[in-house]
Amino acid sequence: xxxxxxxxxxxxxxxxxxxxxxxxxxxxxxxxxxxxxxxxxxxxxxxxxxxxxxxxxxxxxxxxxxxxxxxxxxxxxxxxxxxxxxxxxxxxxxxxxxxxxxxxxxxxxxxxxxxxxxxxxxxxxxxxxxxxxxxxxxxxxxxxxxxxxxxxxxxxxxxxxxxxxxxxxxxxxxxx
Amino acid sequence: xxxxxxxxxxxxxxxxxxxxxxxxxxxxxxxxxxxxxxxxxxxxxxxxxxxxxxxxxxxxxxxxxxxxxxxxxxxxxxxxxxxxxxxxxxxxxxxxxxxxxxxxxxxxxxxxxxxxxxxxxxxxxxxxxxxxxxxxxxxxxxxxxxxxxxxxxxxxxxxxxxxxxxxxxxxxxxxxxxxxxxxxxxxxxxxxxxxxxxxxxxxxxxxxxxxxxxxxxxxxxxxxxxxxxxxxxxxxx
Lengths: 176, 237
Known about the structure:
The structure holds two protein chains of two kinds.
Chain A: E1 4-10, H1 16-22, H2 27-34, E2 35-39, E3 52-58, E4 61-63, H3 64-76, E5 77-83, H4 85-89, H5 101-111, E6 127-132, E7 142-144, H6 151-162
Parallel strand pairs in A: 1-2, 1-3, 3-5, 5-7
Antiparallel strand pairs in A: 4-6
Helix pairs in contact in A: 2-6
Chain B: E1 5-10, E2 13-18, H1 23-29, E3 53-56, E4 62-64, E5 75-77, H2 81-97, H3 112-119, E6 136-137, E7 143-146, H4 155-164, E8 169-172, E9 179-182, H5 199-203, E10 209-211, H6 223-233
Parallel strand pairs in B: 1-5
Antiparallel strand pairs in B: 1-2, 3-4, 3-5, 6-7, 7-10, 8-9
């Protein structure tokens, strides 16, 4: 049987959703036999591959870099899943949204520190005005809220997709 | 004079109700549950949240069950795809209006808004988030008012007026600018009318009103206490 190509992506989040993904205990072994993890923080691939079946995206869209990645991912993925509250609602990254970006950076990197009072610009992507959920930028096929989503919820969603089913709504999901 | 008995159908089932009862009261008296958020047993219903909307035969309009009186021969539908759709939209609009960040909320796991979203199968919101800049009033020695988490159900307003008799809370402004304020827009700590009884905190369905000193997920509301207090005192809502 041809393995299903799965990618995971980490945008503006804490990696807690990825931890939850790894937390599915023995279920991960049977899952590993059916899927090929082609991209993400857990594997080495540098470039997001073409023709991915399912991509789980953790985190909100906070920077221009996040947005570019997300657009590319959408083009190359059949099924895009918002994984966790940051991807679904904005969650904690969005708590900065009522503060202007320059004011925020000034507060954190200049007024908030004792030494090296410089706003970093080298090698870091520019922040967008606000951190916002994925579906405000691209089409999202499924949302799995939770902070983090329970491992069981993630594994059952993937298992259902592997069986060729998509049953959003039947699973008890919860924000937070 | 004894109350007149009325015959009503709820979801096809014939029940008897008393004249003057609302659809919600009649449904509950017959063991039928209608989803609610702003309603709290013992307080005057206001129809603020629109979760309890029902269909009534003979009209296309949807009616809030908590404020609509039963009429003889009325046929009410409480569950339908149309109602689910409208209830979901109501919840989604509540979520986008303010900053309901469940993961950092004292009421996470004990919140009626969050539980209702789960019950209605709301896994995402179709509208753009508003992300407004809102106040957190920490001036009271024991309690907090976080406007980010308020859904304007007005339970606090009603419990303060109807049960405590203090009339501290009220709603100022209109529409999306509406806010809960104490003692004609004083800081809570300066509100002289407040008796610090905490009924508003226990009545609040979300983390908008909370006791100080609790961390995330720790604030469990005892709003059953409000309802039982009303019953014991015999207050008529």
